[in-house]
Write a structure and sequence with these properties.
Elements (H helix, E strand, L loop, with lengths): L1 H12 L4 H13 L3 H14 L4 H13 L3 H14 L4 H13 L3 H14 L6 H9 L9 E6 L2 E6 L19 H7 L15 H16 L1 H6 L6 E6 L6 H11 L3 E5 L11 H15 L3 E6 L16 H13 L8 E7 L17 E4 L5 H12 L4 E2 L3 H6 L6 H22 L5 E2 H10 L4 H14 L7 H7 L4
Parallel strand pairs: 3-6, 3-7, 4-5, 5-6, 8-9
Antiparallel strand pairs: 1-2
Helix pairs in contact: 1-2, 2-3, 3-4, 4-5, 4-6, 5-6, 6-7, 13-14, 15-17, 17-18, 19-20
Length: 467
């Protein structure tokens, strides 16, 4: 109830805040206050009429209230409007199972998992199979169009000739060496700006790893876990590669596709082998981009098979089976508040580094780098940087892309190279909207109302807000 009161106070300040409304609606559902939850989700739809989270939650509330027919119609509509919204397909599978349609339930379940394996739910799958919804010889894929869902059969995923998971199971160093990059070709000298972030990384990462023996004398080991967080497109991946280059360590970049597996237990095996590979090749940097997809809050998963993978991740970070000396685990995320709180305890991701949008000198340096090797006439990086406040590195690239496309159009008409002008770049700066502002809208709420541990104080400092 304390959480509900806190959220209500926050909404009094920002009544149309979608993330806060969603959090409050879910909190009411957890307390089984269905009427209050429905009011909150209805408010969300007033602000955002197409919000799939709210529509799916309302369908679930209708079912809980005994109005199953209306609930089914509602969730069918959500799946038609938002065919890539996996939670709606999971709920639709549950409804179908309750109606005795086990085969349909399996089809809907497979659609959800095809969108993202993290949405798999072992308990729901077990119930579907027990009801007769076993997987046939072919994979069923569901596509939505208009108000109807069409079903078609795809190639057998168990065909020995095209096993998508072949080549990883041997677990040898040779296989993994081919899978992952060996040495990064970057260091801090190749990263424009970000001086405060670089210094933070030096103090929290580089100096401990460069002086491992000194730290060992004080009972401290080099390595550990560091979480980089901030708006998308601001260089978290780039600075991670540069960090590995600074300490001359093997850089192991891990993607979801290299871990997630459709077979129970295989994802955990793959994750363990990746950590073992990093330990055998220390000093090494083990980098997980979008780490919140692998380290999501277990409360949101309930009986999902993803909970087992999260437990394995925590065990590997603790080094319960082998020491992680010399292994730096770097995680990057746009949404640190979605991580399970267990990952933010000492010995895991206990060091957080905020990667903000580039400041003005950094933006000028990025402009110079973007212009290098391109036909740009009379470029003034400093003047352009002033027009790019709050722009991420990715946003600045979008500005250049627009200006280059305009010059290319003229070049094709003239049959010769037409330089990109400062005027075209300035026009692009007006047309491209900074993507970071939307991120700060959400981050501000978490920093103000869900920041008891002070993890997000750097966000408040950047925004000029005092606690």
């Amino acid at each position: 109830m304390a959480e509900i009161e806190t959220l209500k106070q926050a909404l009094a300040v920002s009544p149309d805040n979608i993330p806060l409304l969603l959090m409050l609606g879910k909190a009411y559902m957890d307390e089984f206050q269905l009427g209050e939850a429905r009011e909150v989700f209805d408010r969300m739809l007033v602000v955002d009429p197409m919000n799939a989270d709210a529509k799916t939650a309302i369908a679930k509330l209708l079912d809980l209230g005994g109005r199953s027919s209306e609930a089914i119609l509602r969730i069918e509509q959500v799946c038609a409007e938002s065919p890539e919204f996996a939670p709606a397909w999971i709920l639709r599978a549950t409804f179908a199972l309750n109606e005795g349609e086990a085969k349909l339930a399996r089809e809907y379940y497979e659609k959800a998992v095809s969108i993202g394996v993290v949405y798999s739910d072992s308990e729901l799958l077990k119930r579907i199979e027990q009801a007769g919804g076993s997987k046939g010889p072919s994979r069923t894929t569901i596509q939505s169009s208009g108000d109807q869902a069409s079903v078609y059969m795809d190639q057998d995923p168990f065909d020995d000739e095209e096993d998508p998971f072949d080549g990883f199971e041997s677990g040898g160093d040779d296989d993994l060496e081919l899978e992952f990059a060996s040495k990064p070709n970057s260091d801090f000298s190749k990263v424009g700006g970000m001086e405060s972030v670089k210094e933070d990384i030096r103090m929290k990462i580089l100096y401990p790893m460069e002086n491992a023996e000194l730290f060992k004398a004080y009972g401290k080991s080099a390595g550990g876990g560091v979480l980089l967080y901030g708006p998308p497109g601001c260089g978290k991946t780039m600075i991670s590669r540069a960090t590995a280059g600074e300490i001359d360590a093997k850089f192991i970049s891990v993607g979801l596709h290299q871990i997630l597996d459709m077979f129970i237990g295989k994802s955990e095996e793959k994750l363990h082998e990746i950590f073992e590979f990093a330990r055998r090749n220390a000093p090494s940097v083990l980098f997980f981009d979008e780490v919140d997809a692998l380290a999501a809050d277990r409360k949101d998963m309930r009986t999902s098979a993803g909970r087992t993978l999260i437990n394995q991740f925590l065990s590997e970070m603790d080094g319960t089976e082998a020491h992680n000396d010399g292994v730096l685990v770097l995680g990057a995320t746009n949404a640190p508040w979605h991580l399970d709180s267990a990952f933010l305890r000492p010995g895991r991701f206990d060091r957080l580094i905020f990667v903000p949008p580039p400041d003005e000198p950094a933006r000028a340096e990025i402009v110079r780098i973007m212009a290098d090797g391109k036909p740009v006439d009379k470029l003034d990086p400093a003047a352009l940087a002033k027009k790019l406040k709050d722009f991420s590195g990715a946003d600045i690239k979008a500005v250049f892309d627009q200006a280059i496309e305009a010059s290319l159009t003229e070049a094709m008409k003239a049959g010769k190279i037409v330089p990109v002008t400062q005027k075209q770049l300035a026009k692009g700066a007006r047309q491209v909207k900074p993507s970071t502002r939307k991120w700060f809208e959400s981050a501000k709420n978490y920093a103000l109302y869900a920041n008891q541990s002070g993890f997000y104080d750097d966000v408040l400092t950047y925004l000029g807000i005092s606690k």
